[in-house]
Specification:
It is a single chain. This protein has one domain: Rossmann fold (3-Layer(aba) Sandwich), CATH 3.40.50.300. The protein is 32% helix and 24% strand. It has a six-stranded mixed beta sheet with strand order 6-7-8-3-9-10. Strands 2-1-4-5 form a four-stranded antiparallel beta sheet, covered by helices on one side. Helix 6 runs antiparallel to helix 8. The chain binds adenosine-5'-triphosphate and magnesium ion. The site of adenosine-5'-triphosphate has 13 residues, from strand 2 and helix 1.
Length: 266
């Protein structure tokens, strides 16, 4: 038996803000193996982000044990957690969180700057990560010159550039239209299949969860169900079935003037 990437045992999370005390996670037990693609579902306030913050070492459980690749990380201090994040984890967010005045390549290189990787090596790895998500030809573009799906691809490349053991994505298609969501889910499925990278993705959309191999549903801070996806969707296949796009997203339209070199004034 190989060691699971994630092993949560009896995880509790209580937010204590003085006046209010919120019991956000209750006795959560969860194992995730290498190469799995897991969707975490649940209504608003059910504890999904709280769970992701713990998985992502952004926060510590109030009680319980968290082992990552066999190592107990529940008791690590802030600096040690940052170290685990930099070495083992890649994050993808709903709002992309890209630096606006910076090229795609520079955005992707950012985690390597924090990790102290020399410039030439950063460029090499940044380009490789962009190529992995199919954006090699866009490395000099700023986020404002890219479509939503392309921006999320840059964010995924940035998450990949450290060769993490696991990708964590919180509502990565939350702001995207159907086609762009399919595109982004296609990138995740491709990475999961081809590179075997473990993915944990939070969504409140059941049809997005069906791109994963397993769905964990959370309610009131507890795991309500944990089941394999029987009829798994294939994003690449579904994208091909969509009618062709009418307009290939005119570059630079709808942008604030400051980000758009072609525009003067507002
Ligand atoms: N920093 C915090 N301080 C106090 N309470 C919090 C904090 N973060 C979350 N909570 C509470 O913990 C519970 C779970 O919140 P969480 O953000 O994990 O839900 P969620 O499932 O991600 O919801 P959503 O779908 O709206 O993003 C909620 O009752 C929320 O109000
Ligand atoms: Mg949330």
């Amino acid at each position: 038996m190989t060691v699971p990437v994630i092993e949560l045992t009896g995880i509790e999370k209580i937010y204590d803000t003085g006046s209010v005390r919120v019991h956000a996670l209750r006795n959560v037990n969860l194992e995730i193996q290498h190469g799995e693609f897991v969707a975490i579902m649940g209504t608003s306030g059910s504890g999904k982000s709280t769970l992701m913050n713990i998985l992502g070492c952004l926060d510590r459980p109030t009680a319980g044990r968290y082992r990552m690749e066999g190592v107990d990380i529940s008791q690590l201090d802030k600096d040690q957690r940052a170290d685990v994040r930099n070495r083992k984890l890649g994050f993808v967010f709903q709002g992309f969180n890209l630096l606006r005045r910076t090229t795609a390549l520079e955005n992707v290189e950012l985690p390597l700057i924090y990790a102290g990787v020399p410039a030439a090596e950063r460029v090499r790895r940044g380009r490789a990560a962009l190529a992995t998500v199919g954006l090699a030809y866009r490395e000099e573009n700023h986020p404002s010159q890219l479509s939503g799906g392309q921006q999320q691809r840059v964010a995924i490349a940035r998450a990949l550039v450290n060769n993490p053991s696991m990708l964590l994505a919180d509502e990565p298609t939350g702001n995207l239209d159907t086609r762009t969501s399919l595109d982004v889910m296609g990138v995740f499925q491709h990475l999961n299949r081809e590179s075997g990278i473990t993915i944990v993705l939070v969504t409140h959309e059941p049809d997005i969860a069906e791109f994963a191999g397993r769905v964990v549903t959370v309610r009131d801070g507890r795991i309500l169900s944990d089941r394999p996806v029987l009829w798994r969707r294939d994003a690449a296949v579904e994208l091909e079935k969509l009618p062709p796009e009418e307009d290939e997203g005119s570059l630079g339209a709808d942008l604030p003037a400051e980000d758009c070199p072609q525009k003067e004034g507002s």
